[in-house]
Amino acid sequence: MDERSGRPDGDHAPVFLRSLGLHGVFIGSHAIAEGALTTRQLREGPYVRVLRGVYADPSIPRDHLLRCRAAALLMPETAALGARSAAAVLGAPAPNYGDPVTVVVPASEQWRGPAGVRVHRASLPRGDVREGEDGLRHTTPPRTAWDVGALERTATAVGVLDAMVRDGRLDTVQLSQLLREGAGRWGARRVRQAFELVDGRSESPPESWVRVACALGGLPAPVPQYEVVQDGQWLARVDLAWPEARLIVEYEGEYHFDGLQIARDDVRLRRLVAAGWRVIRLSAADLRDMDAVVRRIETELTSALSAG
């Protein structure tokens, strides 16, 4: 053991951490009890405190899945990662590192979890739980979908569910079946609103959020990932389109600000404008005020339709 760094000597560190916990995540008190670390070494060493009492090797990316691994070491055997946290384990867009991990806990369990864990008390049949290849116990895709719809804001839920449908974790037949079977169940109204807006053609959460904002604002539904063809010539595939109004909404994510990507996007959008399409370009800053986004789209739709 290197007393100065608090890390086991040499190449033994990764083996040490894997032996203590899940993928380099470990409970500090266990490490101390086994004599692998002293309290001082744990406190002053390089380890990252993920949740109360749970630490990780500093080389592990600090993302929501790291927090899920930490929560998995603490939660009862009868519990499972759920809602957005389970969706993240299944490959859907994950919450931020600082967002709470959702753990579904049977009502009979008294476990409350540490700060950074959101406990959802509900019935949890064995058939609703899956043990992942990575050792993380989480709810199945159908159960995850229901809890996402019941617990999250509609826009957030739709963004997650769109991704799960797009990746083949769910399909619309399953969602319809869940609605039929869940009539009268807790959260059914919220779930129905989210499920009815799901469209697996959306390729990113921002696209989903804009679609939801338009729907809740009473605007016509756009077509996600629309192929623009004019006079037999393919012009572009765009994020969202209202073909009747010849209106396009494009979301410019971080990748857009690469110099070469900016040039390509500008050429592509100029081509669309020259062909008679109106283009609204949105950035992350715009999405902070969805009411303003909806008003902007409504103004363009009204103008385009009145001109037509």
Number of strands: 12
Helix and strand element order: HEHHEEHEHEEEEHHHHHEEEHEH
Cross-sheet strand order for the largest sheet: 9-10-11-12
What is the residue-mean pLDDT, rounded to a whole number?
A: 89
3D structure, described in words:
- The protein has helices at residues 12-20, 28-33, 39-44, 64-74, 83-89, 141-151, 154-166, 172-181, 188-195, 205-216, 259-274, 290-307, and strands spanning 25-27, 48-51, 54-56, 80-81, 101-105, 117-121, 129-131, 137-139, 223-230, 233-242, 247-251, 278-282.
- It is built from twelve helices and twelve strands.
- The chain is an alpha+beta fold and 308 residues long.
- The termini are far apart.
- It is elongated, with a radius of gyration of 24 Å.
- A hairpin with a 5-residue loop joins β7 and β8.
Structure keywords:
308 residues, alpha+beta, Endonuclease, Chain A, 3 domains, 4-stranded mixed sheet, 3-stranded antiparallel sheet, 12 helices, 18% strand, elongated
Short structural description:
This protein has 308 residues and is of the alpha+beta class.
